[in-house]
């Protein structure tokens, strides 16, 4: 009984760290993001090289990130590029992560390009619970906001959300998170955004989302 409880606590601590890590990307420079992604790739490579060195070599060939931030000011991390590690490990106990997009506020005045928001495209159709309940119960997000006409909430960004579908909003103090289920897609069932409110408010040239 005690060992089962310990295992459960360890699993919850590990998965909760995923949300902490995602928030930690906010404010990072492009070189810092690439360094972090490469660190996750090295873990994946070490785990693969022992049993499948040829596969590891093929993975390594696809893991190189662009030398500079793409012109769109968005770095898309996927299974077939520098994102292999993060896509493999992120939310692995609950969701299938298909893609992680790092949205940068471009260079302005004396500030370098910084991550303003992180978008995670995921599939929760094999999860025990739906994504919103999982994010709150396992990843310890607070109760979602309940905006009303008398008590509206202004989102930090003009997210690419479908106006005909509901969204869930969490106020995380200096950051905000939103989730929207996306029905009818083959590989993606929802999008999760985490945004730094201050960087978004100060950004003078927000990328086209």
Give structural attributes:
209 residues, globular, 34% helix, alpha+beta, 6-stranded antiparallel sheet
What would you say this structure looks like, in words?
The chain is of the alpha+beta class. The chain has one domain (2-202). It contains six helices and six strands; from the N terminus they run αααβαββαβββα. The longest helix is centred in the first third of the chain and has 24 residues, at 2-25.
Strand content is 15-25%
Low-confidence stretches: 1-15
Distance between the termini: 48 Å
- Shape verdict: globular
Quick synopsis:
This protein is of the alpha+beta class. It has helices spanning 2-25, 30-49, 53-61, 84-89, 131-137, 197-202, and strands at residues 74-78, 96-105, 114-123, 168-172, 175-181, 190-196.
SSE map:
Layout: H1 2-25, H2 30-49, H3 53-61, E1 74-78, H4 84-89, E2 96-105, E3 114-123, H5 131-137, E4 168-172, E5 175-181, E6 190-196, H6 197-202
Antiparallel strand pairs: 1-2, 2-3, 3-6, 4-5, 5-6
Helix pairs in contact: 2-3
């Amino acid at each position: 009984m005690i060992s089962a409880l310990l295992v459960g606590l360890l699993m919850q601590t590990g998965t909760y760290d995923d949300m902490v890590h995602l928030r930690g990307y906010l404010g990072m420079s492009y070189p810092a993001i690439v360094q972090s992604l490469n660190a996750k790739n090295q873990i994946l490579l070490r785990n693969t090289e022992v049993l499948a060195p040829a596969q590891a070599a093929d993975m390594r060939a696809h893991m190189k990130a662009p030398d500079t931030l793409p012109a769109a000011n968005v770095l898309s991390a996927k299974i077939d590029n520098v994102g292999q590690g993060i896509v493999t490990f992120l939310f692995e106990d609950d969701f299938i992560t298909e893609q992680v997009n790092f949205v940068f506020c471009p260079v302005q005045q004396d500030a370098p390009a910084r991550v303003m928001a992180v978008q995670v495209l995921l599939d929760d159709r094999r999860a025990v619970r739906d994504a919103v309940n999982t994010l709150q119960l396992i990843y310890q997000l607070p109760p979602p906001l309940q905006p009303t006409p008398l008590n509206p909430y202004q989102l930090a960004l003009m997210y690419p959300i479908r106006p005909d579908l509901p969204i869930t909003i969490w106020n995380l103090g200096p950051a905000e998170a939103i989730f929207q289920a996306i029905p009818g897609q083959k590989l993606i069932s929802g999008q999760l955004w985490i945004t730094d409110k201050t960087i978004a408010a100060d950004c003078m040239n927000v990328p086209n989302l």
